[in-house]
Amino acid sequence: MNNRILGNTDRSISPVGLGCMGLSHAFGTPLEKAEAAKKIQAAYDMGYTFFDTAECYTGTNPDGSTAYNEEAVGMGIKPFRDKIVLATKCGVRFDENQMLLDSSPETIRRSVEGSLKRLQTDYIDLYYQHRVDPKVEPETVAETMAQLKKEGKIRAWGISCVEEDYLRRAHAVCPVSAVQNVYSVIDRETEKLFPVLEELGVTLVAFTPLAKGFLSGRYQERPQFDHPEDNRSGQFQFSEEGFRYYQQALDLIRSTAEEKGATMAQVCLAWMIRKKPWIVPIPGTRSPERMKENLASADVALTAEEIAKIDEALNQMGLKDAASKRISKPEIIR
């Protein structure tokens, strides 16, 4: 398993990171904090060295209290803090389920202090602007991040869900190390950014690389996600129409997995890992077995020719522009 270098830094990270969101946000009842911390420690023991969380990843505990994902992550990484790369995010908050954007310098500064406290650390390896705020120019955000780097509070910064113009303008002020965008076999819009990411030396951190578990092949028919804080119920791919729409893609992944002696999830992750040396997927799971399976995808051998063959088959299915179909209700932040 070959590690990767994070953007323009000298930091080495595992080729698959752990998206920690689902431990306490958007996937049902949050795990108890100590239990979530044990999951993170188990991931580290397997070989994970890249952990992703966010200020706004919260859930409601059974007693009505708020579960802060950063607190669980901070507890989990404490024994090996200096041996891993920790990413968190700012610029998003919720008010009665409405997503509010605020990337003003004042808010970013308040947010970084809160995150440092919850994470029990004195620095953040990778600090993302979680969503582009149309009220704040990219140069202003980049200048704030540059100041935080000089103060030692963050070591690198990134942007989530970004387009080329914004990225270039921000990068010109303070080099961006990572972009975190949706990317998967059935959601390939981010490929239009590949030339600029390669040019600028920016790592692509792929979130929802398994389309929230849909691409694992575990679901053979429309599942029921009954918990009010489980946002998978609002995803197009889990609808009856979605299963029909993506059936050819699932069949392609399944047949490739059988040829490779791998799982469907491993093929989906290997497809992007092998495509570019600067792509790092961050699938999320609560299951140690799935963590191990996902990390082992880095050892699945897909040649450039095999990847091109998969891409051509996907192109023939017309899925490249399917991103707009995937959300059927207001977004719960990812």
Automatic annotation (TrEMBL):
InterPro entries: Aldo-Keto_reductase, NAD(P)_OxRdtase_dom_sf, NADP_OxRdtase_dom. It comes from the Bacteria. It holds the Pfam family Aldo_ket_red. Keywords: Oxidoreductase. Residues 16-314 form the NADP-dependent oxidoreductase domain. The keyword Glycoprotein does not apply. This is Aldo/keto reductase. It comes from Neglectibacter timonensis. The lineage of its organism: Bacteria, Bacillati, Bacillota, Clostridia, Eubacteriales.
